[in-house]
């Protein structure tokens, strides 16, 4: 009896302990679930998650498709009736409203011009359409430029919505800046590769080798000299070290290029140089002059009947070195040239766009190419760079 009682007591004890463990574990799991985060923690997580989802759509900058997709996530952050994103040209995204967005660009332009947040009250918005409430417009900035706006429509615009819209516009600004940096790196890499390929294109190789072959029997010594010049030219063009060179090095490569082209054109190609020794050591981006000379020969003179003239000058203008390349060839249609420089047109003259883009990236928009041209009037290209560039170093050949 005593043994049976002990067994019973042990069984009861085990059962009690088991229930206690299960209850304790259940309590801890329940508490752990509750401790996943406070309301503030969960709100922070939701905000960061929303921002991460929206940032994926702004990787290409302010585009209609990207802004439209991003606004679907971002509207919830402001809890506004309508979220609008615009650039300088028009409305890119209109999330939350029904129908076609009203004509709000006059309001947007005020922010673009002033660079300051604008609050538009109900009375002014009634002229645009019913049920728009009030509007807060905040600028999207990239560096010192205002490139667009974030607008929030609500029944009443209060201080909290103004602060939130400003913060959201600042976040969008950061995403657009990152997108522009990525684009600049890609453009620079593409420009370098395209410039290299342009200088040693199959067309140029074919013409140069044909010219060399034509002298093998009649003038073997000149043929040998041309082979050496061709080898030196290709070695320089295909070099993979350094992003910068000097005016002197670039002019040496141009001299080799023109020597090979004169072997093909003969007396039809005339070149004159006016080079100031004070600018020879000036640092310039690698392959920034050579494509300009090639453009003058291939697209300016190749299609012209009779003699073609190219004049290359280099001299200092105060703190700058100025290089000009002028030809009396067929010229370029200004509208077509603007399209090429804007990146809207591929094909001929793409070397000009590559050089212009690289100069702007390195020295700023004030140092892009200056091109004077018209059909039948030849082309004058001017490049101006600072003579002092301690942050840039030319690669030693």
Largest sheet: 5 strands, antiparallel
**CATH superfamily assignment of the largest domain?**
Histidine kinase-like ATPase, C-terminal domain
**C-alpha-based Rg, rounded:** 34 Å
Question: What name is given to the CATH topology of the largest domain?
Answer: Heat Shock Protein 90
- What is the rounded distance between the termini? 106 Å
Give the DSSP E fraction (strand runs of 2 or more residues): 15-25%
Low-pLDDT parts are 1-23, 25-34
Major sheet: arrangement of strands = 2-1-5-4-3
Helix and strand element order = HHHEEHEHEEHHHEHEEHEEHHEE
How would you sum up this structure, described in words?
There is one protein chain. The model is unreliable at 1-23 and 25-34 (pLDDT under 50). The chain contains twelve helices and twelve strands. Helix 6 (159-199) packs across helix 12. Strand 4 (134-142) and strand 5 (145-154) form a beta hairpin. The protein is of the alpha+beta class and 397 residues long. The protein is 52% helix and 19% strand. The protein is elongated, with a radius of gyration of 34 Å. It has helices at residues 2-34, 39-55, 64-78, 105-114, 122-125, 159-199, 202-216, 220-237, 247-265, 290-301, 334-341, 350-363, and strands spanning 82-87, 91-95, 118-120, 134-142, 145-154, 244-246, 269-275, 283-285, 308-317, 320-327, 370-373, 379-386.
């Amino acid at each position: 009896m005593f043994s049976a009682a002990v067994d019973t007591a042990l069984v009861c004890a085990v059962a009690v302990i088991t229930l206690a463990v299960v209850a304790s574990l259940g309590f801890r799991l329940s508490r752990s679930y509750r401790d996943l985060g406070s309301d503030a923690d969960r709100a922070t997580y939701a905000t960061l998650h929303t921002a991460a989802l929206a940032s994926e759509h702004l990787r290409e900058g302010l585009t209609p498709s990207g802004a439209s997709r991003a606004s679907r996530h971002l509207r919830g952050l402001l809890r506004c009736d309508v979220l609008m994103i615009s650039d300088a040209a028009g409305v890119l995204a209109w999330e939350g409203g029904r129908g076609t967005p009203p004509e709000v660009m006059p309001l947007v332009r005020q922010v673009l011009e002033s660079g300051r947040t604008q609050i538009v009250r109900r009375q002014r918005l009634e002229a645009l359409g019913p049920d728009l409430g009030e509007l807060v417009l905040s600028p999207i900035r990239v560096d010192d430029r205002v490139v667009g706006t974030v607008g929030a429509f609500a029944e009443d615009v209060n201080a909290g919505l103004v602060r939130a819209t400003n913060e959201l516009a600042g976040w969008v600004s950061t995403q657009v800046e990152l997108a522009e940096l990525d684009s600049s790196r890609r453009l620079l890499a593409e420009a370098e590769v395209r410039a290299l390929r342009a200088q040693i294109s199959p067309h140029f190789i074919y013409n140069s080798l044909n010219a060399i072959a034509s002298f093998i029997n009649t003038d073997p010594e000149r043929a040998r000299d041309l082979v050496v010049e061709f080898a030196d030219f290709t070695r320089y063009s295909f070099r993979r070290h350094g992003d910068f060179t000097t005016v002197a090095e670039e002019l040496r490569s141009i001299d080799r290029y023109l020597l090979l082209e004169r072997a093909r054109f003969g007396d039809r190609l005339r070149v004159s140089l006016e080079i100031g020794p004070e600018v020879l050591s000036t640092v310039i981006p690698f392959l920034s002059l050579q494509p300009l000379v090639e453009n003058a020969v291939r697209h300016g003179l190749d299609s012209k009947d009779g003699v073609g003239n190219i004049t290359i000058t280099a001299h200092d203008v105060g703190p700058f070195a100025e290089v000009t390349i002028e030809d009396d060839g067929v010229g370029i249609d200004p509208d077509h040239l603007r399209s090429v420089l804007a990146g809207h047109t591929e094909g001929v003259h793409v070397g000009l766009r590559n050089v212009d883009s690289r100069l702007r990236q390195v020295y700023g928009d004030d140092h892009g190419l200056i091109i004077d041209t018209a059909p039948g009037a030849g082309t004058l290209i001017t490049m101006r760079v600072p003579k002092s560039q301690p942050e840039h170093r030319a690669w030693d050949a």
